[in-house]
Axin interactor, dorsalization-associated protein-like (Salvelinus namaycush), 141 residues
Amino acid sequence: MSLLTIKIDKIGLKDAGQCIDPYMTVSVKDLSGIDLNPVQDTPVATRKEDTYIHFSVDIEIQRHIERLPKGAAIFFEFKHYKPKKGFTSTKCFAFMEMDEIKPGPIVIELYKKPTDFKRKTLQLLTKKPLYLHLHQTLHKD
């Protein structure tokens, strides 16, 4: 059995410097959008440079990869605080499907909100080459 640790390295956004208290919500969902694991939030990212917000945070997926059902996906929702509206908003999201789980770095595309956990109507956030940068480590249990 294998456990997966995902290091959330950085996210590329054209307005990265203007995001207040940015963090990621990580969830594992089946094809119907149902949570398979407890949802996890990262700490607020502290470093921004140019078009990147750096997280450098490890997230442990709380279930053996082999026990995740066919069609499951790991979602990453990028959230930030909007002072004018007084609440935290999801800016964009990304996801990784089971066939993308392998050790090493991976770069995944960003999609426009609202988060579509069923993955039916996906719209890319931008035509610019801006992505979510992750690094995966598999541990034999």
User: Anything to note?
Assistant: The chain is about 0% helix and 50% strand. The beta strands are 2-12, 20-29, 40-41, 47-49, 52-60, 73-82, 87-97, 104-109, 111-112, 131-140.
